[in-house]
Amino acid sequence: MIRFFIFLFIYTSVFAATVDRYRWESGETYLVFLQRNNLPVKELYYNLDKDDQRLTEEMRSGIHYQILRDNKGDIQQILLPLNDELQIHIFQKNNSYAFEAIPIISTTKTEAFYLTISSSPNYNILKETGSKKLAQIFVSSFKHSLNFKNDIRKGDRLVMIYEQKYRLGYPFSMPTLKVAMIEMRHKKHYIYLNDDGRYYDEKAHEVEGFLLARPVRGARISSYFTKRRWHPILHKWKAHLGIDYAARRGTPVRAAGSGTISYCARMGSYGNLIKIRHADGYETRYAHLKSFRRGIYRGKHVKKGQVIAYVGTTGRSTGPHLHFELRKRGRAINPLRVVQVTTKKLKGKEKRAFLKLKKNYDESVNLHLNNQTHFKKLPPFEDMSYIHLLKRESNNG
After folding, report:
1. Contact 163, 110 (CB under 8 A)
2. What is d(CA 245, CA 317) in angstroms, rounded to the nearest whole number?
């Protein structure tokens, strides 16, 4: 079915303008979207299993989606991106419509820019690029270590190098910061994304934030965060919106940050679940718990590092582990990509590998500083990834 959509997309891109791009409006729900487009609610929502119904709740305002119509204006197919890697595909089937979750095809570009500060990093990045996302990711990366309000001066400089995903020729999702530099009072401050997925300063010290490195001490990571994976049991594409920490049943689970418990009960495939509401719109979730610690209840304030529960295997689980999620304003994000509190300092082979990576980053930063490469907004381009996938599928028979 992906191949069928790809063929139609290429055909209509060449011979007709029937692929329309829309923006998901604030306050619109998936059910309202179906009703507004005269699509069958029963087949496309109520007949879905609970996991797929829960997927539809991931739609967020501002997301751009595509509708493919025939020459009569009837809807043939719809692509609704849920996150960076997974999308809902609605398509005609047997005189009605069908639903499936499929991977997003995207291309990734490394981009960079330089600017001189006249007011504040947030204001100047937003003014130069028009991107709230770029401003947000730069400021949040330094906010725990630098005081922009008191120490920034007019004429200070910054460089940002990041990866941006493109879908059908348009940028989407949050950029991934690779390296950032800000010069304040003639002193340069850096932050680097290391190969382990964490951020470090120029001394190979992990940058500090508000979360614990691991909510289960000594546990190994058995499954990483991904927005698409083929589920071995359900045999369909699903997102794994958290990190699994394998540990013995009964191992203490600690609050990753200080906050207020907003949920403490059983919830479907999560099993026994605790949700903690933190500052700045963050929420952490702790699933498949064996039991809750005595005195833990909804509305209770807990401190970072406090034991709140014990590892178990309740809900949809194949063995004892903690499923840990981090969300910001309801949207799941990778906990390993968030600045975390830890005493970790790279040593030995890890440090040597980081310093090699740092050297390459520094050369790129200096290049942009010397050339004063300002932000250049790229026009939408023809995304060839669909054609490449079609060729690959054809070659595989």
Report:
1. yes
2. 12
Residue 360, pLDDT score: 94
Separation between Cα atoms, residue 165 and residue 157, nearest integer Å: 26
Prediction pTM value: 0.60
Domains and CATH numbers, the chain: 2-104 (3.10.450.350), 107-208+342-371 (3.10.450.350), 211-338 (2.70.70.10)
Amino acid (1-letter code) at residue 268:
G
The phi and psi torsions of 323 (rounded to 5 degrees) equal -95, 115
Q: How are beta strands 211-212 and 340-341 bridged, if at all?
A: parallel
**Are 340 and 213 in contact, with CB atoms under 8 Å apart?**
yes
3 state SS of 197: coil
The series of mean pLDDT values per 10 residues for the chain, 397 residues long, is 48 56 89 94 91 81 86 88 83 90 86 92 90 85 74 90 87 86 90 85 76 80 79 70 90 90 92 91 93 91 89 90 91 73 73 94 92 78 44 33
* DSSP H stretches of helix in the chain: 2-15, 30-36, 41, 50-56, 121-129, 132-142, 148-151, 348-371, 385-395
Selection from 9, 55, 67, 4 nearest residue 237 by Cα: 55
